Amino acid sequence: MAVNDKPPAIGANRAMLHHVSLPVRDVARSVGFYRDVLGLTQIPRPDFDFKGAWFALGTDQQLHLIQDEGSTFRDGKGLDGRDIHFAIRVGSYRGALAHLAGLGYRKAGSPGIGEFQCMRVVPKATAGFPQIYLMDPDRNIIEINADTLDAGDDEIAGILAG
After folding, report:
1. Which residues of 97-116 are buried (b: 16+ CB within 10 A; e: fewer)?
2. Domain-by-domain residue ranges, the chain?
């Protein structure tokens, strides 16, 4: 690099998201959620001096769960897509919705559904792609989205009706 050449900005330097770290209170409980509800694959994690777990997100990204007494949590907050969250892009919105409904998740506001079994379903989101929001056991918000909407209104209603 010449003396007057500036190094590339972060965004121009082959930047990509590597991982998202989330605080959790109970690693085993959270591993169950991310493995059994979202179907993520747990991957090896270095032997840190604190509890945690790592998951693969696609081929190049990761989710890191960290249990630490100094962590910040969304205590008392409900499902709000405008609050801090991360998004997982899936190949089929219909498939993701059917999977969650098959596990007992229902549209937010449904009678008898607790806040950890509800999801905010936004098939025609202003963002331009269909979205589903849900919370993990520590109130971390996850957005599930797809490039395109692959289900009609009647099919979505049928999936949500169980």
Report:
1. bbbbbeeebbbbeeeeeeee
2. 14-69, 83-162
Query: What pLDDT, on the 0 to 100 scale, is given for residue 152?
Result: 96
Q: pTM of this prediction?
A: 0.91
CA distances from 121 to 39, 53, 59, 61, 134 (A): 19, 28, 26, 25, 9
CA distance to 51, 61, 86, 95, 141, per residue, from 73 (Å): 16, 23, 15, 30, 11
Q: How far apart are CA 160 and CA 93, in angstroms?
A: 13
In this structure, what is the dihedral angle of CA atoms 43, 15, 83, 77, given to the nearest 10 degrees?
30
Written as six digits, the tokens of 102 are 């098959």
pLDDT at 2 over 80: no
Domain 83-162: which CATH number of 3.30.70, 3.10.180, 1.20.140, 3.40.50? 3.10.180
**Are domains 14-69 and 83-162 of this chain identical in fold?**
yes
CATH, domain range 14-69:
3.10.180.10
